[in-house]
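Anyone able to model this chain together with adenosine-5'-triphosphate?
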Amino acid sequence: MTLGKRRERERVLSGIQPTGSGSHLGNYLGAIRHWVQMQDDFDAFYFIPDMHAITVVHDPAALHRRTRETVAELVACGLDPSRCTLFVQSQVPEHAQLAWVLGCITGYGEANRMTQFKDKSARGELGAATVGLFTYPILQAADILLYQADRVPVGEDQKQHLELTRDLAQRFNARFGPTFTVPAAYIATTAERLTDLQEPHRKMSKSLPPGGTIYLQDDPKVLTKKIRSAVTDMGREVVVGPDKPGITNLIGIHAALTGQSTQEVERAYAGKGYGEFKADVAAALVATLEPIQTRFREIVADPGELDRILGVGADKAEEVASATLATAFDRVGFLPRARGAQ
Ligand code: ATP
Ligand code: LTN
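re: yes, here you go
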């Protein structure tokens, strides 16, 4: 919150990258669906971190297309631009400006401890590690602190970046005076961490082969086929267990899609086999995704309207971001610019 002033609703902020071949079911069940629920109870800011997307090798045409498509997916899933602030990071220049200042209070060793940098820089297919990839978490801290976010709902993989954000906020406040809200993490439970259908020990991800990943845009036939050929485990009982990662994942998906607990799903399938269970998971999936897909096709067909929505979002975002940046610049001793001088 802007220090001194109390807001009526807590502010949340989160982002989803416009990378890969579209959002997947893990993104939806683990993140997007919660963002939709949060837009009424919170002052919600959601954005597309396109500047983060260029920290690994990328194709400009694909980034351009995926940025609009990601927005269309979010709206199709239920984000309502009149109830939340929806925007694209590169359209609000304050992100890069604050990142510079935060970079100047981040220790080199501190940045060097970030495990995502180590993981991604070790993966050759993403290209040689760049300075942008190294400073990725500092830009992420700027994303969060610019909006004085109280909570940041993200998956477990982002925990370390949130801790860095909190450290930087506290350090800046201590050194230059109270400026930033120190955000609380809001980490999705591991129960909602979907795994790959073909390799159920790994998280469902945009960067694994498509057979194990359910994309929100997969057509019903593909969805059914992916579930039918999902790796299952020894035995034939539909129960959760450490020795049954494939079935456990499918039970989690079924439960999340139908709003039941995993125990309820187990009870409903007592004495029934994998075949019947998988058919029902596929049907629940199609029932959830088909309406989203129909809306997506309508929304993405009107790029002018998408750009208009993003223009409104960027204006709303910039109002908050520019006020925070002005305070931060003042605190570190930058001279304010005289506007309209002749
Ligand atoms: P990649 O799959 O290439 O690692 P990603 O799918 O994690 O990328 P992001 O844009 O980094 O995509 O994540 C968007 C949100 O979705 C994050 O909050 C992340 O924690 C969540 N998320 C990603 N994968 C899963 C998953 N398998 N299960 C649950 N939540 C997930
Ligand atoms: N690194 C995040 C995406 C991201 C983000 C943010 C999430 C960039 N900036 C600010 C929350 C808040 C990811 O890979 N999921």
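The radius of gyration is 21 Å.
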